[in-house]
Each structure stands twice: as structure tokens, then as C-alpha cells.
Write a structure and sequence with these properties.
By secondary structure, the protein is an alpha/beta fold. The chain has one domain: Alpha/Beta hydrolase fold, catalytic domain (Rossmann fold), CATH 3.40.50.1820. 37% of the residues lie in helices and 18% in strands. The protein contains eleven helices and ten strands. The strands form two sheets. An eight-stranded mixed beta sheet has the order 1-2-4-3-5-6-9-10, sandwiched between helices.
Amino acid sequence: MFKSTDFSSINYLQTKSENLSFRHVFSDPSLPTLLLIHGNMTSSYMWITLIEPLKSKYNLLCPDLRGFGNSSYNSPIVGMEDFCDDIMEILNYLKIKIVMLIGLSLGGAVSLKFCAKYQKVVKGLVLIGSVGLGGYYYKRVDYGKETEEKMPDKEFLEKDPYVAGYSMVLMTKNHEFLQILLEKYLFNVGRRVSDTIFKRLIEEALLQKNYVDSMWALNIFNMTENFNGIMKGTNEIEKIQCPTLVIHGTKDKVIPLKEGVNIYHSLKNKKKAIEIMENLGHVPHMDDPEKISNILMKFFEELQKN
């Protein structure tokens, strides 16, 4: 592990196919490491509001998933497991053996998959506004009307009006439209980050190179024991045995609160908790950084005692 205290600095790891970027604040080798996994339509910069509150007690590692932020996208992902393997390569490179994991939205799905595959690496898990265990999917649109049918394949998904529309936003680097989108869905309880941070979030979102593939990976993600209409469940939720905290805002317009509640009830581990954040949205750590950082520190401090 090498020292760094500058979150704005971008670091890289060249793997067989990708140049993976990551931000890190490593001040003391004796401190535990928090691994923070961002969501869709964003990057590692999404964690900017938690760095100051947490860096004195933890080393922080914030990777850009393959195809997001400054990470390359040479080899298309097939599913969430590809992201997990990339993260493991970064951990091996930095010689980090144990982490406490925080996943936001799509990053929640990645984190759940990572916990199931690399159980010995994760000491504790926090899911913030996480995608549900049965995935996140669009329903088919037929003649302009949404049906109850799910997308049969990635090619069909790519033609969906919403997916095609956002793909065009990325292609044309449409800052204005993305600003409207973020304020409507991420900051629907009122934007509390500075104009500088908000502008940077837009710029980071427009770096995404894997939108359709990520959306399809969310469609086929299924860690339940049931068929989700597209993919048979793996029932990997049974493998999540580390202490887990679910955080979900009541005003989340991206992932409904019921998904977070369902994750909590589906967990088989004895040490689990849920924090339902009244009047906070999909990014509660940006809506109220102090409250969320205090909740995180309390959870991780309890982990350290055991």
C-alpha cells in the first residue's frame, strides 16, 4: 500500500485488457480500508462528500468501474462479475487483503456479487440505494406505451426510447439535458452540493463508455432463488454472511425503498441492520453527508470491535 492524501489524483492499473483508474486516500497503513463502489451514470467522484469526514479514521479506495470515469473499456462486460474481478485486481495490486465495502445503486449490485465471490476479503458491507436482488430492468415499450413485458435481449434494450435517449446524451455530451436529469432523479429533495461539485458530476457522468452493457447487466442480475423474467436466480444472497447495513432514502426516485427493505429481509446473516432515511433521495450521502458519515462510522466502529 502506498501513501496518498489527494482524492483529486487519478491512479491507474494496467491489466491484461484494461487501464483501470482509481482514487485513493491512504494516510496510515494501520487504518482499515473502505472500498467505495459508485453507481451507474457516475464515477468514483461521486464519493467526494464523504472523503473529509472519513479520511482521518479510514484509508479510502474509490475505483472507476470498467467503462466509467477514467477507466478504459476495451473488453465489454458480460455481467457484474466482470466489475468484481477488476476490483480484485486493484486490491491485489495494492496488497489490500481485507476491506469494508460500500456500494451505491449499481455499485450495490457489484458489492453484493463481490461479497458472494470473495467472501474472505469483505469484513462488512453497506448498501446505499442499492439495486434490488432481482435486478433493475426496463419494461418493453410498444407503440409508445409501456407493457408488462421485460426486455428479451440487449439489442432490444438498446432500442428502448429511454436507453436510446440517454445513449444520445452521452454521444453528444449534452450537459444541459444531463443537468435536468440529475436534478430530477438524484437531487429531487433539493440539491445541496456546490455548483462546482455538481458541474463535475455532470462531466464525470459524460465519461461513461458502457451504458447499454451496464443496463443489460442490471437486467440479468439476479441473486434471488427465483426467475426474474429474464434470468434464473443464482440464490447467491445465501453467501452474504458478513455484517450488512442497508441505507435507503424514502424519496429515492431511482430505486424504490421497497428494494432496500427486501434486501434487508432476504439477508440470512445474523448481523444486519437497515437505516431508512426520511426525506432523503438516491444519493443520501450527498443530501446529508454528516448524517450518513456518522451512520457509517458507527457501523464500522462496531465491526472493528469484533
